Amino acid sequence: MIALVRRQPLVSYFVIAFAWTWAFVIVFLILFPLPDIIVRTTPGDFGPLIAAVVMSWVIAGRPGVKDLLKRIVQWRGGVGWFALGPRRHGICPARATGCSGRPTWSPWA
Asked: How far apart are CA 70 and CA 68, in angstroms?
């Protein structure tokens, strides 16, 4: 099994990610429906992260996992890009309201 995962790492990544995610969907959304709370789907959302950690462990061992986790928290952008983000998001909703002051599009309409 490990040899197959090492021969086909990309396919194995997607199989693990989909298996983890859909296992939670089948169990908690179809078989045992729970009220609509954030905890209901959150474990399934970690499928790609868990697949990345598993594949890093299989391919490169403990140093591979450490390198992956280090890259996740590595600061790559300049301060200017982070200062621009809130300003840009503040402009977009103002433009979406148009002249009437009401939203021109809403996902709830």
From this structure: 5
Q: Can you give the residue ranges of every domain in the chain?
A: 2-96
Question: Position of tokens 């209901």?
Answer: 40
Residue pair 11/50 in contact by the 8 Å Cβ criterion: no
Which residue has 């890009």 as its token pair? 81
Contact 87, 95 (CB under 8 A): no
What was the pLDDT predicted at 90? 54
Q: What percent of the chain has pLDDT over 70?
A: 67
pTM for the complete prediction?
0.64
Contacts of 8 (CB under 8 A, 6+ apart): none
**Residues with pLDDT less than 70, the chain:** 36-41, 81-109
Residue tagged 């089948």 (tokens):
26
